[in-house]
Design a protein that fits this description.
The protein is mainly α. It has helices at about 5-15, 20-25, 30-40, 40-55, 85-90, 90-110, 115-125, 135-155, 160-165. The chain has one domain: Lysozyme, CATH 1.10.530.
């Protein structure tokens, strides 16, 4: 039996015991599609959603960030405004909008650096140089660390993984 990449990531998410893992798995195909559209690593996008909302679609922060990807609606104007109500009720839209915004930060601010792009996704334009935002940098490290954990669990139980490395 050959598994799709979405199924492999899903199995890793389930084996990690991620909160709302079943819900995450139902949206894994969307994560793959959005990642392909915006040239993102689907494992990083999966980790970002886990860190941002623990896969709770109606999540809302004190700062006004909404949905799975915790997008702040007032900052979405350049990407086509999306309100909180829509982000909380439409998980696919939240994943797409978060992917679009992350891609923007990686390409235009991080100059291809996922680490800088993740920092900027969290802290905006304060993520480069000697005085980079400490909260944004910690966020970036947290998402990347969780990405590594997902990757590690993607090979657990895989009989042919050693051969393909």
């Amino acid at each position: 039996m050959i598994l799709t990449y979405a199924e492999i990531i899903c199995a890793a998410v389930l084996s990690l015991g991620m909160p709302n893992a079943d819900f995450a798995c139902t949206h894994m195909d969307t994560i793959i599609e959005v990642s392909e559209e915006y040239n993102l690593d689907p494992v990083v996008l999966t980790a970002l959603i886990h860190i941002e909302s623990r896969w709770t679609p109606r999540a809302k922060s004190r700062a006004g960030a909404c949905g799975l990807t915790q997008v702040i609606p007032k900052f979405t104007r350049k990407f086509g405004y999306t309100g909180c109500r829509m982000l909380k009720r439409r998980p696919k839209l939240a994943i797409s909008k978060g992917g679009q915004i992350l891609s923007y930060w990686i390409k235009n601010y991080g100059k291809g650096s996922v680490k800088v792009g993740l920092c900027a996704y969290n802290a905006g334009y304060r993520c480069r140089g000697n005085h980079a935002d400490k909260t944004g940098l910690a966020y970036s490290k947290k998402v990347l660390k969780y990405s590594k954990e997902i990757y590690a669990h993607m090979t657990v139980g895989c009989e042919h993984c050693e051969q393909s490395k």
